[in-house]
Design brief:
Layout lengths: L1 E5 L3 H12 L1 H8 L4 E6 L13 E2 L2 H6 L3 E6 L7 H10 L3 E4 L2 H17 L4 E2 L11 H7 L5 E7 L2 H13 L3 H10 L8 H4 L2 H15 L9 E2 L7 H9 L2 E11 L5 E11 L11 E8 L3 E8 L3 H17 L26 E7 L2 H8 L3 E2 L9 E5 L5 H10 L4 E8 L1
Parallel strand pairs: 1-2, 1-4, 2-3, 4-5, 5-6, 8-10, 10-16
Antiparallel strand pairs: 7-9, 7-11, 9-10, 11-12, 13-15, 13-16, 14-15
Helix pairs in contact: 1-12, 4-5, 5-10, 7-8
The protein binds NADPH dihydro-nicotinamide-adenine-dinucleotide phosphate (NDP) and L-homoserine.
């Protein structure tokens, strides 16, 4: 079967490499070869093993009836949305690593795929090389998903690990993540949480059956985490991790949030470091399942793309039943209405804190200034917490971080 790769960067070149290196294995499994007929990119790649397949013209791929499989690894929504839609309409199967595109237009593209009896698969869009979307849809298909949470961004987990375990400065850790091919073209999407938000939306759409838009999910990145809070976390049995979290509420809606969390050391998520991702899914029948592996990087991500290409080849005539329903603005509960436990750090009088919060858990840190107060609240809504904090006389708040 003939294939095309669109975008020959970190992921696309990995797809090419795997299709060439593991060609015999793939042919053995499928009973036929996957042959790369085109590689679309804006740049030239002199001397590259696939140089003679390069094109700069998307229409070459679209017009070629021999090409049945396309891997989109260009990133962004323009022109990726238009290209993907036209390929699906032309009866070609498309796989993608582009979570921005899926989180924004997943519902529309899946609908187009269904209308044209082709597959649109994007296992690489969440967790890089970690199998999560297919297991969630297929292997856990007999469950109502109750909750999922996890580390969904390799770059920020890599940065946090380097900074706090190895004392590497932020800028150096980010530069290294970029050099290793982990970061987004604009790494603000990693640092400020937008990338985790997109992945959380894709997981939530599959888990709960309706398209969840990134704009519906309150999102905070790692830019405000202070080394002092990491010290408090470590001294008191926690790690700080950037998480995507989503759960079904009793009112039938979902609560979704992207933010740094204090994670108890005994939770598997706390042990996930470097570029690795870890995702816990809780189903009503299976209970807790944990997924772990490399969340970014060329070959791990491409491994998921190539598996999707193989799945498309195996389901070339009978499309896989995969997808979710339309947006429903009322389906996502305002996070402000949801209760969470918080770590709070500030400067003030501990007795004043006790008067308002009662017998909460106070945390200690060797060498901390005498007027520093740090504690973990009971479960409360953020607005109730803010009101209580405002009621404490002379308390200056330095940090407020959710606790898992
Ligand atoms: P890269 O920037 O390394 O690769 C993208 C390639 O696509 C570049 O060579 C780019 O060319 C090319 N391209 C962009 N627009 C066009 C266009 N209109 N026509 C032809 N070629 C185009 O990105 P990555 O490989 O890192 O990421 C690709 C996608 O995969 C993104 O959506 C990313 O979020 C996602 N992803 C990345 C992972 C990773 O570990 N890197 C992991 C999981 C998902 P040029 O450089 O000239 O713009
Ligand atoms: N920039 C992303 C990350 C790539 O670091 O996780 C994988 O989606």
């Amino acid at each position: 079967m003939k294939a095309a790769i669109m975008g020959y960067g970190v992921v696309g070149s990995g797809v090419g490499e795997i299709l060439l290196k593991n060609a015999a294995l793939i042919e053995n499994k499928l009973g036929e070869k996957i042959e790369i007929k085109y590689v679309l990119d804006l740049r030239d790649f002199p001397g590259d093993v696939l140089e003679n397949r390069l094109t700069k013209n998307f229409e070459d791929i679209l017009a070629d009836d021999e090409v049945k499989l396309v891997c989109e690894a260009m990133g962004g929504t323009k022109p990726a949305y238009e290209f993907t839609k036209r390929l699906l309409e032309a009866g070609k199967h498309v796989v993608s690593s582009n979570k921005e595109l899926v989180a924004t237009y997943g519902y529309e593209l899946l609908k187009t795929a269904k209308e044209h009896n082709v597959n649109y698969l994007f296992e690489a869009a969440v967790g890089g090389g970690v199998p999560i979307l297919r297991p969630l849809w297929q292997c856990l298909g007999a469950n109502h998903i109750e909750r999922f949470y996890g580390i969904l961004n390799g770059t920020t987990n890599f940065i946090l690990t380097k900074m706090y375990n190895e004392d590497m400065p932020f800028d150096e850790a980010l530069a290294l993540a970029q050099q290793l091919g982990y970061a987004e073209k604009d790494p603000t999407a990693d640092i400020a949480g937008a990338d985790v938000c997109r992945k959380t939306c894709i997981l939530a759409s599959i888990s709960f059956g309706k398209h969840i838009d990134p704009a519906q999910v309150q999102t905070q990145g790692i830019q405000d985490i202070h080394i002092r809070d990491v010290s408090y976390a470590k001294a008191n049995g926690y790690e700080i991790k950037l998480l995507g979290f989503c759960e079904k509420l009793e009112n039938g809606k979902i609560d979704a949030i992207v933010a740094p969390f204090f994670v108890p050391k005994e939770n598997q998520i706390a042990t996930v470091s470097d570029v690795f991702n870890g995702i816990v899914v809780v189903g009503d029948m299976v209970d807790e399942v944990f997924f772990y592996g490399r969340g970014a990087g060329s070959l791990p991500t491409a491994s998921a793309c190539v598996a999707d290409l193989m799945d498309c080849a195996m389901h070339a005539d009978k499309r896989k039943n995969f997808g979710w329903g339309e947006r429903d603005a009322a389906f996502v509960e305002k996070h402000a209405n949801c209760k969470t436990t918080y770590f709070v750090r500030g400067e003030g009088d501990i007795n004043e804190v006790k008067k308002v919060f009662g017998d909460v858990t106070f945390l200690s840190l060797q060498g901390a200034p005498l007027d520093e107060v740090a504690f973990i609240t009971a479960k409360e809504t953020e607005s109730a917490l803010d009101k209580k904090l405002a009621d404490i006389g002379n308390l200056h708040i330095s940090a407020k971080i959710r606790v898992l």
